[in-house]
Amino acid sequence: MVETVIHDAHVVVDEGWEIPGGWVALDGGRVHAVGGPGDPQPTATHRVDAGGRLLTPGLVNTHHHMYQNLTRAYAPAINGSLFQWLTTLYPLWARLDEEAVHLSTYVGIAELLLGGCTTSSDHLYVHPRPNLIDAQVAAAREIGFRFMATRGSMTRSVDDGGLPPREVVQDEETILADSERLVARYHDPSPGALTRVALAPCSMFSVSESIMRSTAELAEQHDVRLHTHLAEDRDEDVYSQEVYGCRPVEYFERVGWASSRSWVAHYVYGSETENRRLADAGVSATQCPSSNMILAGDTADAMALRGLGMAVGLGCDGSASNDAASMWLETRGALLLGRYRHGPGSMTARDALSMATRGGARNLGWDDEIGHLRPGACADVVVWESLPLTLAGALTDPVEAWLRTGPSRAWSSFVGGRELVRQGELLLGGLEDVLRRHRAVATAIQGLG
């Protein structure tokens, strides 16, 4: 007997493998078996009738700043460029403490679950006080969510030619020591792990060249992944030329980051030659469609990068550059941007789903276990729900209908075989209290109390 069977679904097992009217059996935190309508189903303790809905692997969010939901849609920053909104919000983020980070992470994960996400990384690079990553891990563990914490860092304040105020930067010794502590305490490389850690200096305009090099060496030593922002904004090009005497990608290579250990956020402004160099080195990238559109810049050419063999995932990014944390919305946005850029034959819903699943898993170095539902994979499953009205007439292709109609959200979600969303409702008993406390903390951080 297995723990759970989800049946009567259009099952997307993996790229190129779909089962109309299929079922998925979950047991011991793993996908036990999959089958079609004519295949015998194992006996199960718990059965979920999907009612003909679409079932996919859980979506993987590979770039986020969850603490920023404490300044969601903050009016003084909403119409600024990237650098303008950063300089407006940094002083507010300097007020972060453990409670604020715990609450914002809890809220961020809950929101992601409703948007079909079952695994997320988070890039926390503002550290005005110690132990903020610990607060994130605690929130993820309370919920039972698969989480890759990234120990972000900033060393260059406005006093040193950077953007952030001195209150949110740290010295290199503190950063490296805490990175070592967090990897030793929380990084779990074992199969089926719920918690892993990566190292993530924020960006070239907020950290020193030496911390970039030291962090890459530390990641190699402990066999963890590396993450940063790269080639996100035209101003970054100018900054890199003035400070480092080269373009951002050349700097990235110079400091030892051009390897299969690294995934980068946004990566909008690489040249064709630079794109090929990074793809050949095994670097992967995250596209953040909503953030790119809200900031009115440009966006990564995801299909061109994929054509070079680069793994491209999707990310929600943080509030002020994107005030919603729905991976369904980002997957739809990727589809629309790809088709808008290259024409109607350039990208399909299955391409976008591949980015949100397999692509994201590859970003995180986790594609052996997540991003697909082959037997033996982690039991991270989403059954999707759209209003019957929006699906009326969508009879021929449930995957295309999933992104072309909508909005869709999770009807049922499992992480490691544990049900966290049931019939569209979060199974989180403490959410109401968390939201009340989150509002009080957000009010104080925004100076509205």
TrEMBL record:
Keywords annotated in UniProt: Hydrolase
Family annotation (Pfam families): Amidohydro_1 (PF01979)
Domain of life per record: Bacteria
Classification via InterPro entries: Amidohydro-rel, Metal-dep_hydrolase_composite, Metal_Hydrolase, MTA/SAH_deaminase
Coiled coil regions, renumbered to chain: none
Ranges of residues in domain Amidohydrolase-related: 55-388
GO MF, one annotated term: hydrolase activity, acting on carbon-nitrogen (but not peptide) bonds
Designated name of the protein: Cytosine/adenosine deaminase-related metal-dependent hydrolase
Source species: Georgenia muralis
